[in-house]
Amino acid sequence: MFKSAFISILGLPNAGKSTLLNAMLDEELVITNKKAQTTRHRIKGILNAPGLQLVFSDTPGIINDTAYLLQDQMMKAVKESVEDADVLLFVLDVKNPKAIEQLKEYAKLSETPIIVALNKVDLSDQELISQRITEVQSAFNTKDVFPVSALEKFNLESLVQRLEELAPEHPPYYDPEIISDENVRFLVTEMIREQMLSQFKKEIPYSAEVVIDEYEESEKIDRIRATVFLERDSQRIIVIGKGGQSIKKLGTEARKKIQAFLKKKVFLGLSIKIRKNWRKDEVQLKRFGYIKD
Ligand SMILES: Nc1nc2c(ncn2[C@@H]2O[C@H](COP(=O)(O)OP(=O)(O)OP(=O)(O)O)[C@@H](O)[C@H]2O)c(=O)[nH]1
Ligand SMILES: [Mg+2]
């Protein structure tokens, strides 16, 4: 008997959804960062075990007041992932009391079973954790609340075990050898964006989108050329930095990540282009893949 399930991971920005997915998969598949709204797309990550396949969807953090079309599209991706899930996995930062109210709206959208990961317990104490468990159980009408630390990989086994119990009998949906159906090009753009998030302040990472122009694979080395799109000329000056130092660091650090992921040598060439206000521009968002025809 084989079990397979689609599980959508939902939560507010910065709750630790992507960190939790990586921890369950034991892979650095999706990017994570201390800045909110790191994840922009729904991204699948697949956990394969004997007799079991759990197909997780990592999703962008839920925001109520969207400020531009990109965020509207991000919330659309969240709603879609609710519709086709067998189980909803809510991730709540144990220290954020507002999360429960905001997530209740999403719980109402479907009849799908909900299980809750109360994350970042490493930063909390037993009293707060117990209090939160009671609140969450009653808010979502579920007994399945798991205090976890995605960062320290604490208590993840019992969470996965419960997901296995809830999974319907079904043959695997994907080849059990793969951990994602995302193509390598997309994952590479994400790794470049992750370095932008770590390296640059304020608006710059939010104004950045990365596109692969050329990807030439060979036995020993992959040669990749990518463009970083920004919104303003002033941002270009910062990203390039004095004597090109900043863009050099961006390229070097991103290349290290990509090499570690691909387990292969990589050449990475970066250039910069400006697309004014692309986050509000429907045509650009279509080109960048946020709006599907
Ligand atoms: N201390 C602690 N930090 C955590 C834990 N889980 C995640 N974090 C940190 O919280 C920050 C946000 O983590 P992400 O996984 O990017 O959060 P997310 O929910 O995917 O965020 P968005 O994609 O922006 O919605 C990162 O700095 C993580 O290292 C945890 O269990 N404990
Ligand atoms: Mg994320």
Characteristic key phrases:
binds magnesium ion, 2 domains, Rossmann fold, GMP Synthetase, Chain A, domain 3, binds guanosine-5'-triphosphate, alpha/beta, 23% strand, 293 residues, 10 helices, six-stranded mixed sheet, 9 strands
What can you tell me about this protein's structure?
- The chain is of the alpha/beta class and 293 residues long.
- The chain has two domains: 3-166, 3-Layer(aba) Sandwich (Rossmann fold); 184-287, GMP Synthetase, Chain A, domain 3.
- 38% of the residues lie in helices and 23% in strands.
- It has helices at residues 17-25, 69-83, 99-107, 126-140, 156-166, 184-199, 203-206, 233-240, 245-262, 282-287, and strands at residues 3-11, 43-49, 52-58, 87-93, 114-119, 145-147, 209-217, 221-230, 265-274.
- The strands form two sheets. It has a six-stranded mixed β-sheet with strand order 2-3-1-4-5-6, sandwiched between helices. A three-stranded mixed β-sheet has the order 7-8-9.
- It starts with a strand and ends in a 6-residue tail after the last helix.
- Bound molecules: guanosine-5'-triphosphate (GTP) and magnesium ion (MG).
- Residues 11, 13-19, 32-34, 36-39, 60-61, 119-120, 122-123, 149-151 line the site of guanosine-5'-triphosphate.
